[in-house]
Write a structure and sequence with these properties.
Radius of gyration of chain A: 18 Å
Order of helices and strands of chain A: HHHHHHHHHHH
Number of helices of chain A: 11
Structural class of chain B: mainly alpha
Number of strands of chain A: 0
Number of domains of chain B: 1
Number of strands of chain B: 0
CATH class of chain B: Mainly Alpha
Largest sheet of chain B: none
Number of domains of chain A: 1
Structural class of chain A: mainly alpha
Helix content of chain A: 55-70%
Largest interface: A-B, 17 and 18 residues
Strand content of chain B: under 5%
CATH topology of chain B: Four Helix Bundle (Hemerythrin (Met), subunit A)
Shape of chain A: globular
CATH architecture of chain B: Up-down Bundle
Distance between the termini of chain A: 28 Å
Oligomer: heterodimer
Distance between the termini of chain B: 19 Å
Radius of gyration of chain B: 18 Å
Shape of chain B: elongated
Amino acid sequence: MPSRSHQYIALVASLPHLGKLFSRKEVPISEYRLKQRLAMLEPAHTRLLREIVEVTAWAGVARYDQDLDVIRHATAVIADLKDYPDLQELVASRMETRTLIAALRRRKDGQEAAGDIQSWGFGRWCAQIRSNWSDPGFGLGHFMPWVAEAHRQLLADDHIAMERLSLTQVFDQLDQVGARHEFDFEAVAIYVLRWVIVERWSRYDQSEARVRLESLLHAALEGPDATGPDADPDYPEDTSLPLEGAFS
Amino acid sequence: MNEFVVALGWFGLYAPVALGAIGSAWGCALGGSAAIGAMLDSDGGYGRFIGVSLMPSSQVIYGIVIMFSLQQSSVDAANGAALFGIGVLSGFTMLFTGIRQGEVLASAIHASKAKPEIFGISLAPAAVLEGFSVFALVFALVLAGSIPS
């Protein structure tokens, strides 16, 4: 076992338990402290973590104007993570979740067919979405029941409940992969991704968030694209990249 | 041939100490790394984190005891093979249990930081591994008594 493992054991052990999603009002570790702890990462891992956060966090995706650019960026990041298949799976799953939410929003906006889904969608479910466009759960309801539930919440204009549902889905993905890693780079990356979500949620003011989310959605749906910013569960209160400066 | 068996005998005589020391060093480094990390995230209880991280130290002590029990007035063709077998196998036991103990201690320290009430019970796997080391020690001592001198 290389000495680097000892360094990662110390790093992971120095990070406080984040707890369950929605269970805390504040993050247990500040951004400043987290940046300090992440200084223990190997330089190559620092670069990879920055890429993962950029492609999964809303603020990173918001920098792109076109969905195709987001998809290209995600594909490049996944290729870069060739030594970490679990992280590849996580990034791909996150993009697929975004694609499903984007499809739900496009359909609610009156789009009658998926159209050129390759230009705004990513991953395994594109063909399924295209051929089951009229089905509430895109034909995925039997093993992804949350899609049909999100559809119902979207129709009811209950955006906050839908955000909770999609965040829970993302958190579950992180938990599943996180169970396979305890003291390695993957464990650190998963911790940071969870921290980003918890930190975003801790900054929510429910009433303000509702107004802001609705205005964002209206603005976004007026434009041609829907996979990127407006489809992401952890929409921002600002557009600064989480942990910006931690990876320099 | 006799010289080879004698060489193996000396190898077996020192193996419990050497392999036990490696196991202890490795295990303490794993546990110690977790303890240091945990101290960054805690306001107290540092002593217990460091204390449990030193648990794998026992493997080298057991190795020393086994070495003394194997020690003969002379190492020759009659006792070389026995010294080699008992020494090397008990040494590998100390090496393996030391490393694994360090890993479970790191997990225990990390988990008990989030849930302090499980601190005691989280040490149970490390205690079981300690038990396996003690088995290897005791039966090495028993067998050492029947080695022809």
